[in-house]
Amino acid sequence: LEMQTAQVFQKNPTAAAKHLTRIVHQVDKMTKLLTDFLLVSKIESGNLSLQLSHCNVVSILQKVAHESFMPYKDGRQVLITTKGIPKTQIADSNMLQMIFENILSNACKYSTGKTAPKAQIRFAKNNWTLLVTDAGIGMPEKYKKELYTAFVRGSNVGNIEGTGLGLMLVHYLVQQHLGQIQIKSTMHKGTTILIRFPYNTFE
């Protein structure tokens, strides 16, 4: 098998590279799906608990952005900014990473062909927030009533990949940190997501 693979690469390296890229993409999809299902299973069984530590939320967001969204697979670069004086938070860093990944992934994949999404962390007096905006397809009014329901997706997503689990998981993880999430969306104009967390509630 190894010899056959090597021969394919030698005869047509461009085609072989494209085929390998598709394989990697499918593996990534399956990994994401299994991760989401495992997380849902833990939530439903009550076995998901916070692993608290002191977190640099700006660094976590930048890490997520640079690993998957700078650039995104279509070449766009998510714009990351901060406002206010950064403060270290007590939180579950893995959960924050999942929140950031899901929100940025949605912003990118539902805005293909538009300007790159923007993400900003703001540090205010009593809380810190994540604000993510995109100029994508937006959400149908009917879907807004079921935003956090598992396996429900907007009627306008077409062939855009997704499991219908992302926002449900984000909503749960935000609640675990005593946070709140607000979503404003207009069809064909885009979506704005604001997630607000209190400072160091777990001290």
Your description of this structure?
The longest helix has 33 residues, at 13-45. The chain is an alpha+beta fold and 203 residues long. It has helices at residues 2-11, 13-45, 57-68, 93-109, 141-144, 166-176, and strands at 53-55, 79-83, 89-91, 118-123, 127-134, 180-186, 190-198.
List the keywords.
43% helix, two-stranded antiparallel sheet, 203 residues, alpha+beta
Biggest beta sheet attributes: 5 strands, mixed
Order the strands across the largest sheet as they lie in space: 2-4-5-7-6
Rounded radius of gyration (Å) = 19 Å
Structural class: alpha+beta
**Percent of residues in beta strands:** 15-25%
Fraction of residues in H or I helices:
40-55%
What's the topology here?
Elements: H1 2-11, H2 13-45, E1 53-55, H3 57-68, E2 79-83, E3 89-91, H4 93-109, E4 118-123, E5 127-134, H5 141-144, H6 166-176, E6 180-186, E7 190-198
Parallel strand pairs: 2-4
Antiparallel strand pairs: 1-3, 4-5, 5-7, 6-7
Helix pairs in contact: 1-2, 3-4, 4-6
